[in-house]
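Customer escalation, tier 2.

The customer says the design service returned an amino acid string that "doesn't look like it belongs to this structure." They asked us to rerun it and document both sides in this ticket. The original structure tokens are below, unchanged.
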């Protein structure tokens, strides 16, 4: 069995002391690689008569921890993952009977959906001792919620940050190298923006000159191959490479290979992502690969960010993020106690800059802040504080960051109607776009979605809503076939468009037998409390299981306290529903519109308007005026807009589209130029902008002798 490190021994003593003092929930905050899992192992070893339940973020992490335990210890431990908790059956939860509950990566326990199942578990076992462990207890993009405070009442057995562990000699200092692997396109785009801006000609010349100097500085600086050649020493190293998605992986795979080959290294690549069916085998092969003279790269998409480290020499970040949690989890893969080599962190997408802008918590900032803090503490005692290593030698980034900051500074100085943003609006974007995405439009009066997207792209602000976590994907897979777009209730941060697109990409389709209409929901709400699952008899094509699941989703329990419809209420429905339709609910306190509609159908009562035939006169009015005013013809017919639109559709009557310019109309986001010449309709192109289309239309109108 692996023994506790010296710093872990003190933490373990604190855990045991706090449990003995009657504190049921204890948290440990320690950086990745500092031996948090050894604390869980030691508790299992020292309590042979106790049962344990271990929760983590993935089965892979659980498997890694199981390797540390012997057979007898494994018999006393149950394992699961956070995303399974909301759907865990009560019978299974009751069979656990744990004396200890371990929450690895405890910050995940506050996730909206996962927390529901975890809260049920903790309430079911109030006497169980709970141990939470994490390197990043603050959920920075969730209103900075602190799991150590919310779930553990601030009871910390250890509170150690990454910088503290490095300065105390617990973890080795990493060499943090910041570069930029792609800037040619950024330079070209910025050059075009300067040309199109409303700045004066003199200002444009100055900005272009500044941009040219910045680009020359980058050109003179080290390319990625030069960076690897300078800092990768043995040629036997193992790196985890973090990428945005599988498309990004496919594009970058040959590029990454070329970088190392140009630097003079042989390289072998492994892929670990959800679309790779051999991902587990690939990762195992990566871990076991010890061949000399070859650099091993594990290309990762949304995996390996938590819990997996060990025999890894460094990380290469090609995935942008403004999440401090994700940032520290990525760089944390490089750290481990007792490591003799210097961990290497290659930040090739300027994440340190993004994180600094969002939270001021990048690794370089945190390290320098901790050093300043210790210096001040020593000054109070009239002592000098020595770091023990040259910070500037280990953190190589200023050359690149000056250029990246320069790009942004130039962009902010551009003037134009497309970029005339007030300081207040920019602050709103910085604060809310990462959290709300395009929904930030509601906070910006008059701003269009395209304006917002263009501005955040120029500012380098990224929305988390563009990315799907493993938790969200799991929710989508389990619930989309049943609830369709109603799954948005489970995924409040996602738009319906985003949900449909992701479902299509994953090959998930809706099982129409599983979808419940509003009508069916009302039947469930009304009858389930008295009839339970037998309500399925009232719903065609629905099973007992589906009705039971829907009732749970709606929060409806089976009981005998539902108010039954009285004879008096039924008489009101029979008398007034044919005239007033669902407005009859105003005569029935405690009844909803939907309930009244369902009751009317059960009683066989219909609205007079539902079966009223259209007269010839009404048809004539519809045919004459619908093409001009559309659904507004309902005022002339004393019918609903819906009824008029439906009848117009049946008769093939369409509303004429008003055009700003004759011969130009919009179709599927393109502007089409169309003329009728000698009785023949002819199109003359499809254009992205109306301005281009009008120019062509004017030319053609002149040719054909038509007015525009």
């Amino acid at each position: 069995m692996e023994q506790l490190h010296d710093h872990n021994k003190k933490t373990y003593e604190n855990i045991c002391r706090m449990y003995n003092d009657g504190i049921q929930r204890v948290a440990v905050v320690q950086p990745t690689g500092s031996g948090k899992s050894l604390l869980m192992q030691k508790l299992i070893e020292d309590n042979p008569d106790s049962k344990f339940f271990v929760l983590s973020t993935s089965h892979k992490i659980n498997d890694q921890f199981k390797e540390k335990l012997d057979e007898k210890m494994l018999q006393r431990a149950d394992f699961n993952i956070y995303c399974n908790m909301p759907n865990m059956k009560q019978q299974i939860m009751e069979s656990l009977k744990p004396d200890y509950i371990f929450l690895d990566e405890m910050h995940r326990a506050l996730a909206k959906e996962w927390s529901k199942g975890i809260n049920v578990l903790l309430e079911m076992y109030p006497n169980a001792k709970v141990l939470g462990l994490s390197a990043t207890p603050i959920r920075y993009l969730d209103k900075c919620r602190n799991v150590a405070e919310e779930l553990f009442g601030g009871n910390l057995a250890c509170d150690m940050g990454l910088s503290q562990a490095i300065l105390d000699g617990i973890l080795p200092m990493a060499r943090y190298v910041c570069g930029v692997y792609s800037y040619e396109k950024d330079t070209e785009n910025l050059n075009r923006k300067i040309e199109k801006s409303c700045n004066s000609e003199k200002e444009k010349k100055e900005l272009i000159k500044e941009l040219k100097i910045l680009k020359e500085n980058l050109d003179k600086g080290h390319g990625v191959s030069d960076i690897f050649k300078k800092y990768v020493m043995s040629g036997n190293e193992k790196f985890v490479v973090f990428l945005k998605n599988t498309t990004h992986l496919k594009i970058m795979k040959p590029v990454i290979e070329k970088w190392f080959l140009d630097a003079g290294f042989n390289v072998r690549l492994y892929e670990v992502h959800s679309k790779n069916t051999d991902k587990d085998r690939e990762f195992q092969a990566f871990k076991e690969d010890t061949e000399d003279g070859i650099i091993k790269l594990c290309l990762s998409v949304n995996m390996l960010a938590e819990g997996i480290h060990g025999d890894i020499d460094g990380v290469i970040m090609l995935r942008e993020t403004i999440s401090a949690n994700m940032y520290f989890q990525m760089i944390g893969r490089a750290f481990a106690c007792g490591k003799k080599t210097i961990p290497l962190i290659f930040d090739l997408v300027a994440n340190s800059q993004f994180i600094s802008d969002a939270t001021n918590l990048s690794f370089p900032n945190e390290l320098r802040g901790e050093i300043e803090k210790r210096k001040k503490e020593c000054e109070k005692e009239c002592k000098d504080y020595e770091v023990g290593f040259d910070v500037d030698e280990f953190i190589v980034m200023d050359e690149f960051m000056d250029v990246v900051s320069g790009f942004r500074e130039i962009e902010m100085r551009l003037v134009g109607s497309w970029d005339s943003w007030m300081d207040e609006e920019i602050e709103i974007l910085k604060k809310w776009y990462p959290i709300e995405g395009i929904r930030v439009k509601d906070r910006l009066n008059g701003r269009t979605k395209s304006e917002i997207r263009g501005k955040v792209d120029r500012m380098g602000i990224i929305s988390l809503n563009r990315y799907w976590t493993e938790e969200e994907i799991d929710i989508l897979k389990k619930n989309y076939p049943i609830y369709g777009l109603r799954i948005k209730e489970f995924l409040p941060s996602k738009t319906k468009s985003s949900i449909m697109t992701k479902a299509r990409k994953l090959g998930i389709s809706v099982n129409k037998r599983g979808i419940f209409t509003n009508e069916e929901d009302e039947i469930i709400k009304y009858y389930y409390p008295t009839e339970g699952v037998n309500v399925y008899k009232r719903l065609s094509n629905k099973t007992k299981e589906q009705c039971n699941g829907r009732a749970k989703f709606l929060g409806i329990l089976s009981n005998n306290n539902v108010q039954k419809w009285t004879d008096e209420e039924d008489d009101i429905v029979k008398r007034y529903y044919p005239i007033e339709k669902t407005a009859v609910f105003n005569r029935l306190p405690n009844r909803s519109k939907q309930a009244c509609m369902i009751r009317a159908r059960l009683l066989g009562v219909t609205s007079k308007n539902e079966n009223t035939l259209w007269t010839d006169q009404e048809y004539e009015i519809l045919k004459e005026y619908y093409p001009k005013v559309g659904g507004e013809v309902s005022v002339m017919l004393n019918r609903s807009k819906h009824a008029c639109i439906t009848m117009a559709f049946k008769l093939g009557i369409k509303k004429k589209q008003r055009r700003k310019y004759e011969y130009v109309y919009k179709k599927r986001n393109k502007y089409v130029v169309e003329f009728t010449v000698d009785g023949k309709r002819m199109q003359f192109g499809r254009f992205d902008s109306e301005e281009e289309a009008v120019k062509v239309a004017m030319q053609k109108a002149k040719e054909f002798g038509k007015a525009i």
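Tier 2 assessment: The sequence is consistent with the input. The CA atoms of residues 173 and 390 lie 10 Å apart. The chain has a mean pLDDT of 78. Sent an explanation to the customer and offered a walkthrough call.
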